[in-house]
Amino acid sequence: MKKIWLMCLVMSISAQFALAQGITAEDVAKMRNVTNSAMSPDGRFVAYTLSVPADYTGENSPNSSQLHILNTQNGTSRPYFTTSSVSQITFRPQKNTITFLSRRQGESSNAVYELDINGGEAVKLFAHSSNILAYDWHPDGNQIVFAASERENTPKSSLSYSPQFYEEDFSTRKAFVKNITTNVTAKALDVKGSIYMLAWSPNGQQIAISVAPTSSVDDMFMRQSVKIVNAATGAVTTNIDNKGKLAQIVWAPDNSRLAILGAKDLHDPIEGNIHIVSAQGGGLRDITGDFQGKFERILWKDANAIHFLASEGVATGIGTIRPDGSNRQWIFKSDTHAISNFDRSSGNAYSFVASTPEHPSELFTIADTRRATPQKRTDNNPWLQGKTLGKQEIITYNARDGKYDIQGLLIYPVNYQAGTSYPLINVIHGGPEAHYSNGWLTAYSLPGQMAAGKGYAVFYPNYRGSTGRGNEFTYSSQGDMAGKEFDDIVDGVDHLVSLGIADTKRVGVTGGSYGGYASAWMSTYYSQRFAAAVMFVGISNNISKWGTGDIPEELYLVHSRKRIWDNWQGNLERSPIYYVDRSQTPILIMHGADDPRVHPAQSMELYRHLKVRKPEVPVRLIYYPGEGHGNVNSGSKYDYNLRMLQWFDTYLKTGNAQAEKPSLDLPEKR
Length: 670
Known about the structure:
The chain is an alpha+beta fold.
């Protein structure tokens, strides 16, 4: 009788949700997002990039990035360049033009292109022998400094084949100065190592750069140092003593100082503190103070103030702080706008990109900071108006050890009825140095509103180790991988069960990277609590992960804090494969076949252990050819989306772990 009652309940709920016009996988596959913006100095125009998905039924290809222009005076917006993808849009100093990087069809490398603000044909300004990776304009608008990859040593062989030399065939990122108005060859900066960031001083006499010893990912993450170069000679004049991760280098308007957005120290997993340093060198002064959040981006307003974009909990906002760390204040702060970047005019106008719980990322402007009222300027998914969305709410609960209040975001099922318990999907972010803000939380690997429309509650916990809560909270999970950080996730489940929202017998989990690690942990160590799991590019064995990933030093410095050879047993005991004997959770494992960060063998190990030791547990492993640490191509993303939802419908909605595995065939397009 109990089984019959449960089946009737599930059928009743399913019928109820079938009436709602919720978000579907096909909707997600066509969603457009604004990704970046640049405001003209006079505030009259905003250039922005729009990410447009490829047709998932056609060639498996990534999104294109189009250049659009908003006229802030009359509110009109139109596409300016759509023939090939663009990046690094900026307004060229002293000119009425926009420049960007793009590679047109048939070209072997990209180039700097220029468009007049009034439109017309894009003009190629400059191309290098290899792809230009970053560039910055001299204040006079006639010179650029740019970085490009140069292969220094190409092995030669008289044989008819060439072997691969693992981690010995890196290309080094070199920097060059080029006068666009002449035919003089670009001049290389006299800097050893691999160059990443470039920033020309306001007086045009110096260039601040960041350089790592090699172009390995580990060095790029952990060993970038800031240097100042004489623009005329290309020689290094000043070395800055920064440590750890680095996000931004910004010159003060008077050329005397730099603001550096970077790590607190070498063991900081993020680059969320603001430091001030003299252009003559010396020690860095951290002006972050007691801020319990994360600075995301900075821009100088004038010699006495720095603008910032920051996260605080699940909220984001734009504000100012003085270079001595005093007078930190918000210009605009919201717990319903997830702001991803911003720019400003020479006056009081701003542009920023943000999503909300109701829509993906769009372009906003603030005309005057004295009123600070944002105006939404674009609507790239108008069809959303006809969709029914689940309510999104901030949830706070206590961790079991009493040390922290944990925040998360809950999307209720569409047509939620109080007193009814629903199947719950936990969506775990990666990092763990990341967090969810209260914006749009639906994408190909984020079930969000898709699942809400199918009758699920969906929860996004910001467990300890997440960002947006200050340094101490971010450091709190170090040396305790899969420990209290993942206990926080289970505590969130218990809280939602206690509220009567989640059905304790129908709790699921998914996530990618470190979130994939959490999904594997929940389906093994905590398996009795989880009815279904979908693991994406996740970790199953911390010992082999250390030896096969591309960031072992980063893993040691900001996560494990112990060398693996000093803690073999500890690493094994924090590995999901160690607890396969506990497994009773049906798990779908998916991975990019060319993932350099978490080797695809991590997924194979968990799959193989389950198949041999627990053959009764439903498990499936899917590799995506040509994909890395996350899917970027339209067909791969759509396939992932459908199979994720299919797995949860089969095992989580019903709570039946004995159900037959879903067909390998995908359903017809709806």
